[in-house]
Amino acid sequence: MLGKKLVTAQKRGETRALCLGLGMVACSMMMYFFIGITIVPFYTKSVWTTETVCKLLKANIKDQEVLCSNREGSEDEDIFPYPCLQVWVNLTASGQEVMLYQTEDTLERNPKCSYVPGKSENSKEVKARIETIASNFRKYQTFPCYYDPGGTQTNVILSRLYPPKGLLFAFLWPTLLFTGGCLIIVLVKISQYVSVLSAWQYKMNI
Are 108 and 164 in contact (CB under 8 A)? Predict the structure, then answer.
């Protein structure tokens, strides 16, 4: 009687562990799919793939405030004013004078300005932040930047939204989850095989 209870408890434990492993694998597949439709397209779309050195030529803040929307076709309430910072640099790789943008998204949101603040920030904070950014550019004359080696885009960006290391880090967690789920499933199958083999050997020895 005790043996049957132990076998039943073992089967229940194996079933729960198997469900856990399958659930982890399913969650990892969903994470892979989410990363594939969100982060990967932005990474493959970016043409600023080569890192080089940029030397500051000028960093000016326009006196007048410009209007900018978060995305093309957005509603009127998404439009907000802010001082326009324009940073021009000398591209070491080609010797050209080009405009610098913070990220790929900055160019899409407003090609006239090098930096686009968040809409939630108030005007005083935005003005102070932009002045600080301009001051830092004037302080550090030389800095790394990214350009398009194919020549499709003549401008440069300061940092990529999704660099290769960031993409690898995004895939790290679903990979660990998938590996852990597969390991649990394999261990459960091994345990079931050992149980069947032990029961067969016990019957042969009777």
Answer: no
Q: How far is CA 99 from CA 10, 52, 81, in A?
A: 67, 14, 21
Q: For residues 15 and 206, what is the distance between their CA atoms, to the nearest angstrom?
A: 29
Other Cβ atoms within 10 Å of 3 Cβ, number: 7
- ∠ CA 95-99-104, rounded to 5°: 115
Tokens found for residue 168: 């690898």
pTM of the model: 0.70
CB 23 within 8 A of CB 187: no
What single DSSP character describes residue 72? T
The amino acid sitting at 206 is I
Give the tens place of pLDDT for each residue, 28-71: 999 999 999 988 888 888 889 899 999 999 999 886 556 555 45
